[in-house]
Predict the structure.
Amino acid sequence: MWRCIPRLVRSPNYFGEIVFWLGTFVAGLSAYRAPLDWLIALIGLVCIELIMLGSARRLELKQAERYGSEPAYRDYAARVPVLFPLVPLYSLKRLRVYLG
């Protein structure tokens, strides 16, 4: 049976969400006029980014619980970054995020 195994990042959907919301923030730069506009936009961006980090951490913990006893999974987790492609960050288990 053929399975799609991400080779650049283990959580491509959360990475995509992070890129999408960062792009939305950047696209709105010309609309931020008042300091309150900037503050609201930055708070929203930080919150959604923390939610995505927390969600990726939860997924990693769940996958480690489910597949952690399999050597192939342990090798995969040691080779493929957890959230950001080409950034050698292989685990978010110690991250303390209270959103998401």
